[in-house]
Amino acid sequence: MNSTSLARNIIRQLVEDGVSDFVLSPGSRNAPLSIALYEAEQAGFVNLHVRIDERGAAFFALGLSKASVSYVAVICTSGTAAANFHPAILEAYHSGNKLLAITADRPAHLRRTGANQTTLQVGLLEPVPTLDISTSVDISHLLDQGPVHLNIQFDEPLVSAERTDWLAGFSPRISAVTTSAAKESFQAKTRGLLIVGHDRAGIEKEAIALFAQELGWPLIAEDPLSFPSSIAHAALALSDPQLRAHFAPEQIVVIGRATLSRSISAVVKDCSDLIVIDPRAHTVDTNRSASMIFSSLPTVASNPDATWLQIWQQMAAIASSSIELKWSEQAAIRAITSNLPIGAALFVGSSRPVRDIEAFASPRAGLTTFANRGLAGIDGNISCAFGIAEKFERSYAIMGDITFLHDVSALVNPSGANLTVFIIDNNGGGIFNTLPQAEVAGFERLFGTPHDLDLERVIHGFGMKVTKVKSAADIEFGIAHEPTGLNFVVIEVPDRASNALELKRVTQSLVSALRIGSNLA
Questions:
Q1: Are 410 and 56 spatial neighbours (Cβ–Cβ below 8 Å)?
Q2: Within the chain, which residue ranges are assigned CATH 3.40.50.970?
Q3: Which of 288, 376, 419, 497 is 20–30 Å from 93 (CA)?
Q4: Measured between alpha carbons, how far is 170 from 18 in angstroms, rounded to an integer?
Q5: Over the stretch 210-248, which tens digit does the pLDDT of each residue have?
Q6: What is the pLDDT of residue 161?
Q7: Which segments of the chain belong to CATH 3.40.50.1220?
């Protein structure tokens, strides 16, 4: 089979299996796929997105996949181009996202011969296995759940004058409706705690809300913007050992992974009866242990203690009333999250912003939130936000300045969607000022890493719209009057050391109020 026919065969199968979004990075060896995709786009079968940087392209595709909950293909040429897919593939693997990486390759007989731009691409994207393709093969069975890697061998000629109507007479297949297996069940204790990780193990938040009602327990959410009934500021309250002991549950159910705060991790560790709900525990996280592990939401027999829930709700009320923030990163986060319009999407960058939302945002509804919590890297965050924005009428992103600079090349291929990106500018890696590393010699050089850049000028250099704000009022006004299209908002906050002290002050004040309110003072 020649390269043109092989490429058409692959694209036709994918379209028939429901793949509609394709992200392409230009190259020579993937030319057969590029030409086939262009023809499929002209016929109205696919959405083709072109991104020149393979790493950014893969994260853009990851964002599309997260937002659509569908397989999205990202395609590149051979050599180092293929290796640039690895960070996004790892994130997709640990998050269970539907990312399809297609790497073009030389024919197998050219491997290990010194041929140009040729390396060992089979197994390159481990732990995701590779299907090495040299001729027509059925690939529909591969589109199951997590990421997939197709490595396709293309021989010369890469461009053909063949003009057959290969797109005639086909359409996407309708997926068969699968019958759900019988649910497992467990007996809930009267004083339990439900903890929901940021990615929710891929479970719909509406289903989790119903499950929480059945349990009748307090709910702690790493993403309080998805669960309006969650206990506000629990990560801060439970940072105190005395309060952790006072509010210790008899049983804990964790949905997904709780990875953001040490305080919540300590609560989980201290509980002798832990139930985990996460399909990854049987595939990716096979060493995870608990009293019981479920792949999906089980049925539950529950007779909760109503007083127990009231005690936690009282804790949340005291915590909320005790928080008085000066202008800081945390104040900026609260201003953003409380003012975003209903129906919007929000991508939250890794490191400090996702933790500040867990600790300081007021629980609310009306947003669809995303974050890269599979491996929690700061790479590709702008690109991922760009991909998510393609699927929503209005989108937002929050990230730190180092996260922004790490993926600044994404601005070469900007999003055309209505997206506002908030950048917390504290001139460096602010999270390290809140960790034990803050006390070591050489901290600024090794961890603080100040960039000393004018981010407004950087963004202007790419021809993007940008404003700078210095207060919560500026943020509220900006959200209420923001223009359409792509916008960047640089948020100027106090220096990292001052912000760490403010964070410590607010936490101590909150803990003191809770100790008094719980008769522990």
A1: yes
A2: 3-153, 329-506
A3: 419
A4: 12
A5: 999 999 999 999 999 999 999 999 999 999 999 999 999
A6: 80
A7: 185-311
